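Re: weekly structure request thread

Next one in the queue (120 aa):
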Amino acid sequence: QVQLVESGGGLVKPGGSLTLSCAASGDIFSIGARGWYRQAPGKQRELVALVTSGGNTQYADSVKGRFTISRDNATATTYLQMNDLKPEDTAVYYCKADRVRTLMAIRDYWGRGTQVTVSS
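Done, posted below.
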């Protein structure tokens, strides 16, 4: 059974920083791309940042220069360093692992989400 567990969300003032973590557990042979998505109330879920298995990264225009995604393959953990946070960054943040290979299958997995609230 593969699980993704996010942590690190919370309440922060505008201009502040947070680091989100997403730990994958289970009998995992390999993982493809790792990503962070977010969903604000009344809006669709959107891609925030992505890091491929080869280390290439991709960011939403709204977070470029402020957020940094990274992955530690040894611990199967993905991080999202968020700096200069703005009220419009408020959302539930979800991590995703693409093409997770286990003994039985290859499929994508989602975490349950962690709330990030940016407010003074």
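The radius of gyration is 14 Å. The CA atoms of residues 13 and 119 lie 5 Å apart.
Next request, please.
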